[in-house]
Amino acid sequence: MSTYTYLSELGRGTFGTVYLCEKKHNKMKVxxxxxxxxxxxxxxxxxxxxxxxxxxxxxxCQYYDSFKRNNRFSIVMEYASxxxxxxxxxxxxxxxxxxHPNLALNIIGQVLLGLNHLHSKKVVHRDLKTENIFLSGxxxxxxxxxxxxxxxxxRNDAQAxxxxxxxxxxxxxxxxxxxxxxxxxxxxxxxxxxxxxxLDRLFDGTISEVVMAIKSGQRKSIxxxxxxxxxxxxxxxxxxIDPVLRxxxxxxxxxxxxxxxxxxxxxxxxxxxxxxx
Length: 277
What we know:
- The chain is of the alpha+beta class.
- Helices cover about 35% and strands about 20% of the residues.
- The chain folds into 2 domains: about 5-80, Phosphorylase Kinase, domain 1 (2-Layer Sandwich); about 85-270, Orthogonal Bundle (Transferase(Phosphotransferase), domain 1).
- GO terms for molecular function: ATP binding; protein serine/threonine kinase activity.
């Protein structure tokens, strides 16, 4: 930590503690995730770094550096000053302030672009949720997918088997302990879409209630008068029980509802320079 100044603790999770720090030579704010190596977590830490090194996209939190010190492994990443999407949506829910359709589509589109980049690198996130989607930029209008602590690279069309992630966003094949692939992220993306439009989770309640609801095939509807039937159809497509029936990120990006928004997002993001550590 001699290169960095500790500012505050941002949070604690299963795999480590996250700190807001400042690089001493240029005062640039960064996030440092410290992972204790006492419980054999070195492989987990190195897996996260290996994944982060493969990713380079405006809608994905940028990796800067990693180092080992005092039986702790630290990962230095981009700091998203606008907080996470979950807290942003919660604030809107408390005031019953639904997002304008254009803003909702913009956020959804940026998540889709980031997720497409992950999948193009054969990375399955495995814990895509609003808490792991961050807001950045001076207007908090740049969306970034982060927290790759339980992500995995699937090579040669392989599938994963480990049941891991947050229950409210888990695909049914994961709930059943079946093999899964990138289509499990598509399910989670559909849950995120619903949450952005409804300011509420698609599946909520106790773990057993959530699992039963996920496997039932029943879906709640967004406000189609506000957001349109096409968005509801995409929520339903992405949360098909059978993963084979779910679209890929490429399929979604060519959907007419997304094309104008994605074109504008790509144009805007092209004018944003990456922050270098």
